[in-house]
């Protein structure tokens, strides 16, 4: 039979026993209470596992010792506080002290019943009570609270956990935690008080915490978490301060439950303050022998720019790196900021001062059961014996967290073996780094398909990336393998190798294709925002199953059989979208060339220039992209497998192969050796709750592809650079299966034999 073990009943029992003990002493008369007791014998009864000597040790008394009534009471209480006994009675009988105890039973086993949403494997590690150990009601209460907290963290705050014991023979019990799971208590509304510059919708997009709406109920659930709310306070503060509001503060966060206790209402009370810009920016040196003017070229902050702490940190890092390169050690940069409230400007003076002469004694790493120490050490720019730089340690901590290998990562410094030595402690908690995925996808160009992929971002704990993917669609099949070593030779040098095999069943053409390519590469930074990649490649292509009705151009190209080429090339990219000084704008520049040799010799050049900015208090995002490519052969000629095609990623509003050069007789799409595209678009909210993840957009695409090359006697349409223009509207939907984009297009300027389409759906990507 199960017995309730509520803590309140236990405490009442203890109080009753204490009162009874005092009444026994009172019955002996006031004189007895005042006098001392001396017992010649102490009899202990009821104990089975606990030895007499142990009980006497708990009591702190011995035969012949003079004891007062208060000391007897304290002895009984000490025995109870050992946590080994269900009841303790201490009774004086003449010159004999009788101690009667009832031992707590031993736990036979521990079960959790009624749990469905959280498995035993998730809950049992939270239970500190253990089988074959003494049952303790206080510990059982703590275990109950731990299980209840676990459900609360999952949003089930109304879950009820009841501990019960089942009595067995030989003073044993089974401990059972009965769980009555409740529904999820979601966040119904997130609101803000005091925000004037940014709308509630914009601020909600900053937060980790999300509202639960009609669509989110179907897709996913967002629950209240105190830790997440604490992060949200930090995110809001960083958001405002990076946009020129240094006085911003979250005054308080009010979290309340609805009357039905089925939803949370969260209100952020904020004070924005006024918007500031940078005023006067200067460098001054208080470091002997160092001229501050020598470091002015490292400054990126400019007068009149919107204030943000991030560019100040960037400037300090640049100055410190420049000082180290000049052999100046223990230089510290102190940014001294003065306010000009009338002009709403903050003046910044970088003061170079001598820092403490402290060295790194060692770096201790704990918690990494899988990840090798060197992977974590590679995130530090300092090693044992180098001067200690607190800023560098903070940056290393950010880099460690940015690896994505760890659920938690803490980096702290403490004094080493002497005041001039520092030990850096790195404590990490590893998280999952691999995913195995089976699923389906859809693209308007290739149709529906199945996908199986495996990705591992920390292969064998070495920080290496490994991915393998097999996909099949209505018109193509693809096998891809990739491997990346981000710290090749222990440097910021990324080595990669990519392999792909692809076959296509061209439903809109009278031929199929087969392509294999393997490409090793090395990439490395060449500037603060620039990176250079060099690569080599081996590739073979083939045209197969060519119909007799296919274009003569295609048949001539297929007659060449398999074409094998080697190539070398490079790609330079400059990207400020994530690291630029302006959080609301960024640019991406990319230029690359590939030089082919083998069965044919060619130069393939591609270029892209893109920009993005946010306007109207960051409610509207504007994007502009200019992209182009050119393929030129010195020996041989291009084939349909080599030339450019404008798919929906490059030029929206056309069927696959629906724009560009084509055979006049067979209508086969031939692609072109050159292309150029300009894309303009705007993305904006639709007034729907932000938790739906739905926004709208408009776009205008203008571009062309041309130049098939030598065609013999075949007649080719649109072989000149004839541009097409397409306009449209978009619906963006962020879902758990990925960001979807629905495009509704209208042709403005197209050619008669083009194949436009009015609707397509794609995975949404940035430029």
TrEMBL record:
Q: Which residues form the signal peptide?
A: none
The answer to whether keyword Transmembrane helix applies is yes
Task: List the keywords (alphabetical).
Answer: Cell outer membrane, Membrane, Repeat, Signal, Transmembrane, Transmembrane beta strand, Transmembrane helix
Q: Which residues form the POTRA domain?
A: 37-104, 105-182, 358-431
Query: Which is one Gene Ontology cellular component term of this protein?
Result: cell outer membrane
InterPro entries associated with the record: Bac_surfAg_D15, BamA/TamA_POTRA, D15-like, OM_assembly_BamA, POTRA
Pfam families to which the protein is assigned, alphabetical:
Omp85 (PF01103), POTRA (PF07244)
Q: Does the keyword Manganese apply?
A: no
What are the transmembrane regions? 21-42
Q: Some GO term, biological process aspect, for this entry: which one?
A: Gram-negative-bacterium-type cell outer membrane assembly
Subcellular location(s) per record? Cell outer membrane; Membrane
Its function, per the record, reads: Part of the outer membrane protein assembly complex, which is involved in assembly and insertion of beta-barrel proteins into the outer membrane.
Query: Of which family is this protein a member?
Result: Belongs to the BamA family.
Q: Which PANTHER family match?
A: SORTING AND ASSEMBLY MACHINERY SAMM50 PROTEIN FAMILY MEMBER, TRANSLOCATION AND ASSEMBLY MODULE SUBUNIT TAMA
What NCBIfam families does the annotation carry? OM_YaeT
State whether it acts alone or in a complex, and with which partners, per the record. Answer: Part of the Bam complex.
Indicate what this protein is called per its UniProt record.
Outer membrane protein assembly factor BamA
Per the UniProt record, the source organism is: Yoonia rhodophyticola
């Amino acid at each position: 039979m199960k017995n309730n073990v509520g803590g309140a009943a236990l405490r009442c029992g203890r109080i009753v026993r204490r009162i009874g003990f005092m009444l026994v002493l009172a019955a002996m008369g006031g004189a007895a209470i005042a006098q001392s007791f001396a017992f010649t014998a102490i009899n202990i009864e009821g104990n089975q596992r606990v030895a007499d000597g142990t009980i006497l040790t708990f009591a702190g008394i011995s035969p012949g010792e003079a004891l007062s009534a208060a000391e007897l009471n304290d002895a009984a209480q000490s025995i109870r506080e050992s946590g080994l006994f269900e009841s303790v009675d201490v009774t004086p009988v003449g010159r004999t002290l009788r101690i009667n105890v009832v031992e707590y039973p031993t736990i036979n086993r521990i079960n959790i019943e009624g749990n469905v949403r959280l498995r035993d494997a998730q809950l049992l590690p939270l239970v500190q009570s253990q089988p074959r150990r003494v049952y303790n009601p206080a510990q059982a209460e703590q275990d109950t609270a731990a299980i209840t907290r676990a459900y609360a963290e999952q949003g089930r705050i109304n879950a009820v956990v009841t501990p019960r014991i089942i009595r067995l023979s030989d003073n044993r019990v089974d401990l059972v935690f009965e769980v009555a799971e409740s529904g999820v208590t979601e966040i119904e509304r997130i609101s803000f008080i005091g925000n004037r510059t940014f709308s509630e919708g914009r601020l909600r997009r900053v937060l980790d915490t999300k509202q639960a709406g009609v669509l989110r109920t179907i897709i996913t659930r967002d629950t209240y978490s105190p830790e997440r709310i604490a992060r949200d306070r930090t995110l809001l503060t960083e958001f405002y301060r990076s946009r020129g509001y240094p006085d911003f503060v979250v005054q308080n966060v009010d979290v309340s439950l609805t009357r039905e206790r089925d939803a949370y209402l969260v209100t952020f009370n904020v004070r924005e303050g006024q918007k500031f810009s940078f005023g006067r920016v200067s460098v001054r040196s208080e470091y002997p022998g160092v001229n501050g003017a020598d470091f002015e070229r490292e400054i990126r902050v400019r007068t009149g720019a919107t204030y943000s702490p991030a560019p100040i940190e960037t400037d300090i890092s640049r100055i410190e790196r420049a000082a180290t390169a000049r052999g100046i050690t223990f230089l510290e940069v102190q940014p001294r900021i003065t306010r000009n409230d009338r002009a709403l400007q903050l003046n910044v003076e970088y003061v170079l001062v001598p820092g403490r002469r402290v060295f790194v004694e060692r770096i201790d790493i704990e918690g990494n059961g899988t990840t090798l120490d060197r992977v974590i050490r590679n995130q530090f720019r300092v090693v044992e014996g180098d001067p200690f730089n607190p800023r560098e340690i903070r940056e290393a901590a950010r880099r460690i967290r940015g690896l994505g290998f760890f659920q938690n990562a803490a980096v702290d410094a403490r004094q080493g073996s002497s005041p001039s030595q520092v030990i850096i402690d790195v404590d990490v908690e590893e998280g999952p780094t691999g995913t195995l995925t089976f699923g389906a996808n859809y693209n308007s160009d290739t149709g529906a398909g199945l996908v199986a992929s495996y990705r591992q971002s920390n292969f064998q704990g070495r920080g290496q990336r490994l991915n393998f993917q097999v996909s099949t669609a209505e018109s193509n099949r693809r096998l891809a393998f990739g491997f990346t070593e981000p710290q090749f030779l222990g440097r910021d040098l990324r080595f990669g190798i990519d392999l792909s095999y692809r076959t296509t069943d061209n439903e809109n053409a009278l031929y199929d294709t087969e392509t294999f390519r393997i490409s090793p590469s090395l990439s490395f930074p060449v500037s603060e925002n620039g990176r250079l990649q060099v690569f080599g490649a081996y590739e073979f292509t083939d045209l197969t199953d060519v119909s007799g009705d296919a274009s003569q151009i295609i048949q001539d190209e297929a007659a060449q059989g398999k074409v094998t080429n080697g190539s070398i090339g490079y790609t330079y990219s400059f990207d400020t979208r994530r690291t630029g000084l302006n959080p609301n704008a960024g640019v991406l520049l990319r230029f690359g060339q590939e030089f082919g040799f083998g069965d044919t010799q060619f130069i393939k050049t591609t270029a892209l220039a893109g920009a993005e900015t946010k306007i109207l208090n960051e409610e509207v995002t504007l994007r502009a992209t200019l992209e182009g490519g050119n393929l030129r052969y010195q020996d041989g000629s291009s084939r349909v497998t080599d030339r450019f095609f404008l798919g929906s990623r490059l030029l929206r509003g056309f069927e696959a192969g629906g724009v560009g050069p084509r055979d006049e007789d067979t209508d086969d799409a031939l692609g072109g050796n050159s292309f150029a595209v300009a894309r303009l678009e705007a993305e904006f909210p639709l007034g729907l709750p932000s938790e739906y993840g739905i926004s709208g957009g408009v776009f205008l695409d203008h571009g062309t592809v041309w130049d098939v090359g030598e065609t013999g006697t075949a007649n080719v349409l649109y072989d000149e650079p004839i541009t097409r223009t397409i306009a449209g509207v978009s619906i963006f939907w962020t879902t758990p299966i990925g960001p979807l984009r629905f495009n509704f297009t209208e042709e403005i300027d197209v050619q008669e034999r083009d194949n436009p389409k009015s609707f397509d759906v794609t995975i949404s990507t940035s430029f």
